[in-house]
Amino acid sequence: MTAPALARPGFVERAAGVSDSARWLGRLMLAPAVLYIALVVAVPFLMAIGYSFSNVTIGTSTPRFVGLENFRNALQDPAFLKALGNTAIFSLVSQTLVIVLASILAIALQRRFRGKWLVRLLILLPWVAPISLGSIGWLWIFDPVYSVINWTLRHVGILGPDSWPIWLGQPNLAMASIIGVHVWRTMPLATIISLGGLSSIPQDIHDAAEVDGAGFFRHLFVITLPLVLPILLVAVLFGLVFSVTDMIVVYVLTRGGPFDSTQVLASLAFFKSIDGGDLSGGAAVALFLLPVLAVCAVLLLRLARRAEVV
Question: How many structural domains does the chain have?
């Protein structure tokens, strides 16, 4: 815009009017976020939908529409069915542990004690630290030779001289390992959300319960948890989305092994599309749980709204 245009009468007034308008100012402030979401999320999402209905590969120059063939092939693939079951186990077990442990931590952090700021800092570290670096650290912790867990357990007498678990080399232990790392990573976010919900409960309610003689467990299950339930459901929703769509922990620790025992849908989609070159098949695998996640999101949000109204 030229200098004469800026100097025209009324330009400054119009700009000031836009900045003073709540509607236009809100749109202006939201524009960068909307543009970012459109470029980073919407465009790849629409491309994945288009790929899933075609036969596109890394070397394909002219993709062809194939309908639901990629989805039918996925349902007939034993690796996909195995990854689907692993995803369900991984998500349900990890989120159950996250919500329980996060609620306990949030209740503990509400109390006053010396070094509270340090405890909060240590709890937040897994979330703010890069997950790739954290996973590499856990890779050393689960090392088959230098595992600090095994050496500690042997030192305290839990492991005998002939017992030495291979955490990432045995199917059940490998699944338990990635669940443990995922809980370690996502628990800080759930703790902060739960702590925010607990802080929103008026102190008068706690004081009234104390005057009425309510014990700890009655106070917890009759007052605290029902009031914080809407916030916990939101934390569950975020946790489900993270656990279903994230593949970094699996990729760094196990690459889906041993014998696909830790392969989840997100990692299978990556290996099939990027490593295998089958972009259409990988897109179909990645989109398979989209309707399930949408239904879970609607149900959890409705439950949160009902709990909030009650």
Answer: 2
